[in-house]
């Protein structure tokens, strides 16, 4: 059974001190011996790698042959099943997060109403001025028959030399 109690700190430090001291002593005794051992390990690993490489290449190709259809199947699932659901989820979330739009119909209706009122006002002013001009040209009272239009004056009231004479 494994104990979950911590060991006393002094006991850990003494073990660490012993290991460090052993490493220092081994380094003092013979660094050349360690270099030789490292060189032997390197050569052994190199020869093992040369022997294992063909078998490893063969196994890698077998794994690639097995994994390619699995990857295609996963890609089809992502394209047809997962991606549309993720897209729908993100779109719904965007609609929920987006702030509500201001309604511009109230302002547009107000501007249209102001345009109509302005147009009616301009038409009223034009009609009033035309009526005033008409009353002035027709005259009222005793001189109603004497008033003539500018067109009739140029045709009938013009002299030979081109001057227009008023009947008054």
UniProtKB/TrEMBL annotation:
Q: Where is this region: Disordered?
A: 136-168
Compositionally biased region (Basic and acidic residues) = 136-145
Give TM regions.
Answer: 109-127
**Key words, A-Z:** Membrane, Transmembrane, Transmembrane helix
Descriptive protein name: Uncharacterized protein
């Amino acid at each position: 059974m494994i104990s979950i109690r911590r060991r006393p700190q002094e006991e850990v430090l003494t073990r660490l001190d012993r290991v460090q001291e052993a490493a220092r002593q081994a380094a003092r005794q013979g660094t050349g011996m360690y270099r030789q051992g490292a060189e032997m390990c390197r050569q052994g690993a190199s020869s093992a790698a040369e022997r294992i490489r063909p078998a490893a290449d063969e196994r890698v190709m077998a794994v690639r042959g097995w994994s390619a259809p699995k990857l295609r199947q996963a890609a089809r699932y992502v394209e047809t099943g997962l991606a549309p659901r993720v897209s729908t989820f993100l779109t719904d979330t965007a609609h929920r997060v987006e702030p509500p739009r201001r309604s511009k119909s109230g302002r547009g209706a107000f501007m249209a109403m102001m345009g109509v009122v302005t147009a009616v006002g301009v038409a009223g002013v034009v009609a009033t001025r035309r009526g005033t001009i008409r009353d002035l040209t027709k005259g009222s009272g005793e001189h109603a028959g004497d008033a003539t239009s500018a067109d009739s004056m140029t045709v009938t009231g013009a002299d030979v030399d081109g001057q227009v004479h008023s009947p008054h």
